[in-house]
Design a protein that fits this description.
Elements (H helix, E strand, L loop, with lengths): L3 E9 L7 E8 L4 E9 L4 H7 L3 E9 L4 E15 L3 E13 L9 E9 L3 H4 L2 E6 L5 E6 L3 E6 L2 E9 L15 E14 H19 L5 E7 L13 E5 L18 H6 L3 H24 L5 H20 L3 H13 L3 H11 L2 H4 L8 H10 L16 H15 L3 H4 L5 H23 L3 H31 L1
Antiparallel strand pairs: 1-2, 1-4, 2-3, 3-6, 4-5, 5-6, 6-14, 7-12, 7-13, 8-9, 10-11, 11-12, 13-14
Helix pairs in contact: 3-5, 5-6, 5-13, 6-10, 6-13, 7-8, 10-11, 13-14
């Protein structure tokens, strides 16, 4: 549903004092900042086109209530003439800053304050408590701010906030509002586009923790150039062209980790920001399932496989020679009665073919699922080792990407396809938590908890199938 706000006003670019009437339409839900500029056809059209070129770093405006606005990173998307009397130019902006006409140099800020959706429970910093005794009363429980160092020159502070309440309410409805303010503070001023890269990194971290989509609800900017006489920052409201979407809000019990868990361990935020660039393509694939909830299940499956394959190549092993040496060490470390079984899987006929110069998908999955024989992932085939499941995953991947009727019989489908996806995500979560730096005890606990849920569901489905089959 659209939540578009419309303002009338006058607009100009920094190199000219000429102002043109127009409408500014901001839709925070859809993530659009749209400016429609009007001018009479008797103007010199060529001059106007030069004045409003296809790309403009800055546009200044003053809306009807007198508020000054600065639009940045602007692009013309349409030029249109109406009845040969009025021309319109439609412009989209990436960012909008409220309060003044800021120069390009002034659009670098020392701090950015964000309000995110869906992170209150994850943060553990605040909640409303109530008593059932009459008269009912509410108490806002809060904890102290949490500040973490992410890298040299950047710290993040999480602060609980509550909306203002009337001293006396005689209306039929009273709303309680709370949020967690997340402030990014920089030693040196940075552009909002740079800060948003750091925001994306943090959002991806929380995505993994709660398996939910997170979006930015509000932004305030702070600069040493804009302060009150007492030294307090003057907050500058900002809008960005990013949509707001949400899927669901899971219970904290099912979270892989929360903010308190991150701060209990030593320097996990620093570790995350250090490895994020290398991990980002993997997390993009992982989080796509809740970022794009209408994605076809075939694409969800392919993304899960690709995420595991990419993780193995980037973090475990990407040279065939190294893989073969590692595989042989694992095989040699097993009881003699098992070695041939593991050799057939880790060093399959295809993998040891002299014409194959790369690590095949099956080999990568074997390496990840076996987990150095230190952890057993659930398996709906009820076999000790997950090799049959791995073969099914590989066959399904080949069926989806290289269709043939012969491959269809081997491909996962129905509930098994869904369980296959969930198990692959579980494997990836295990390794991502390890990369972040969580203790093995924490990883075993949270992954084990999720495995129990999946195993119980698979058992229930099997019993229902057997019951139906026997009737």
């Amino acid at each position: 549903m659209s939540e578009e706000i419309k303002w009338g006003g006058n607009w100009r670019i920094p190199s000219s004092e000429l102002k043109y009437g127009g409408e500014l339409l901001v839709d925070s839900k859809q993530g659009t900042i749209r400016l429609i500029v009007f001018y009479a056809c008797d103007f010199d059209d060529i001059y106007v086109e030069k004045l409003f070129p296809d790309e403009m770093p800055i546009i200044y405006g003053e809306i009807s209530n007198g508020t000054k606005v600065t639009l940045s990173n602007c692009k013309v998307v349409n030029r249109h003439t109406q009845n040969f009397q009025l021309d319109t130019i439609t412009i989209f902006a990436e960012y909008m800053f409220v309060g003044a006409e800021y120069t390009q140099d002034q659009l670098s800020f020392n701090g950015y304050s964000y309000v995110f959706s869906n992170i209150i429970e994850w943060s553990g910093l605040c909640y409303f408590d109530s008593c059932l005794d009459q008269p009912i009363s509410y108490k806002w429980e809060i904890k102290e701010d949490v500040t973490v160092q992410c890298r040299e020159g950047l710290s993040i502070t999480f602060t609980p906030e509550m909306g203002a309440l009337p001293l006396r309410c005689t209306k039929s409805e009273l709303k309680l509002y709370q949020n967690v303010n997340v402030k990014f503070e920089y030693e040196k001023p940075v552009l909002i586009s740079e800060s948003l890269e750091d925001v994306k990194s943090l959002i991806h971290l929380i995505d993994i923790g709660i398996e939910d989509n997170i979006y930015i609800e509000k932004i305030k900017c702070f600069s040493n150039n804009f302060k009150e006489e007492d030294g307090q920052y003057i907050p500058i409201s900002a809008y960005i062209n990013q949509p707001q979407e949400s899927l669901y809000s899971p219970e904290a019990y099912y979270n892989l980790f929360t903010l308190p868990m991150l701060t209990e361990e030593n320097r996990l935020f620093e570790k995350w920001f250090a490895i994020y660039g290398k991990l980002k393509p993997i997390v993009d694939l992982y989080s796509s399932v809740f970022s794009y909830p209408k994605m076809p299940i075939e694409m969800v499956f392919l993304n899960a496989v690709q995420a595991l394959e990419t993780y193995h190549a980037r973090f475990v092993c990407d040279k065939l020679k190294d893989y073969k040496e590692k595989a042989q060490l694992l095989i040699d470390g097993r009881p003699e009665t098992e070695r041939e079984l593991h050799k057939m899987q880790f060093l399959s006929t295809t993998q040891i073919d002299e014409n194959i110069k790369y690590i095949i998908l099956k080999s990568r999955l074997c390496d990840l699922f076996i987990c150095n024989f230190q952890f057993e992932f659930c398996n709906f085939y009820e076999e000790r080792f997950p090799y049959k499941l791995i073969d099914s995953i590989v066959d399904t991947r080949h069926y989806f990407t290289h269709y043939s009727s012969a491959k269809e019989q081997k491909a996962l489908s129905g509930k098994n396809l869904n369980y296959g996806i969930r198990i692959m995500r579980l494997v990836l979560e295990f390794y991502i938590l390890n990369e972040i730096g969580f203790s093995i005890d924490h990883i075993r606990k949270v992954i084990g908890r999720r495995q129990t849920t999946i195993t119980m569901e698979m058992k229930r489905d099997k019993e229902m199938f057997e019951m139906k089959d026997s009737q």
